[in-house]
Amino acid sequence: MACRGAGQMSTRYGKIEDIVEGLDVVLADGTLVHTGGAPRAAVGPDLTQVFLGSEGTLGVIVGARLRAHRLPASEVRGAYSFPTFAAGLDTMRRIVQRGATPAVLRLYDAIEADRSYHTGDAHLLLMLDEGDAHITEATRRIVDEECTAAPAASADVGFVEQWLGHRNDVSALEALISRGLVVDTMEIAGSWRALPEIYTRTLDAIGAVAHTAAVSAHQSHSYPDGGCLYFTFAGRPPAEERERYYRAVWDAGQRAVLAAGGALSHHHGVGLNRSRFVGEALGEGLGVLQSVKDALDPNGILNPGKLGLRSPFGDLPW
Q1: Residue 219's domain is classified under what CATH number?
Q2: Confidence of residue 40 (pLDDT cuts 50, 70, 90)
Q3: How do residues 175-194 score in pLDDT, each as one tens digit?
Q4: Could you give the number of structural domains in the chain?
Q5: Is 53 part of a structural domain of the chain?
Q6: pTM of the entire predicted model
Q7: Helix, strand, coil abundance in the chain, percent, nearest 5
Q8: Cβ 129 vs Cβ 99: under 8 Å
């Protein structure tokens, strides 16, 4: 909640800000604040949303009330291959803009698809939906119609089961790290219009950093107006240059995203590593956020130095 996270089925159920109905938050002076309590309300700004994503800088979340969903009665699956990543993105746009919201709608570029599913130079789209049988069948038909019109080729639907079985397995990344590689992920958001350019420019920017061995991406969360791109990179710099390389990749990648019109983060938040980009991402909005911080935490004791906010304890070393 503090980082505005997203689950892997957010296209159906929403990100955490769509799931939280209310919060209990302790402020810097010890005051306990309760927010929410109604399906919708118009009593000033939504205070729940003030604290969601604040990463502990405005208060400490100690309780929450979440919206629940009925257990799904039906499930449908599909897999399709595309000749280009841009064609896959455009098909995803058409699907969600028709009103279909499959729980899982993930597009892997050819590098990631071949790495995990041995699909060669194809870009792979996986779909899974769950819920009422009438709704899931309608979703399946819309996805199939749009993929057929793209045109895309049918792929092995068993890839969906493979994804389900390994979606939380990070052993491959750990193996690379144990061999001395620098590995990380960078997730961002952008409009459908901007996503193809963000994809190309960010891959190029990260790939141009000396010692980068591989960079790839997939699209993992979709909305009527855009979605999330999730980049993965690996590099093999000399041991004494690991930190410099890591910072250089983030500088190159994030600034390429921002220059192409993307958002700084989709669901991992900002923390320390991305704090240096918040001013570029928010512009004058950073001053508004600082004013809220000053009002709720005048002594600056809550998670100092995060979100690009001023810290009374000195400048951050990074």
Answers
A1: 3.30.300.330
A2: confident
A3: 888 888 999 999 999 999 99
A4: 3
A5: yes
A6: 0.94
A7: 40, 25, 35
A8: no
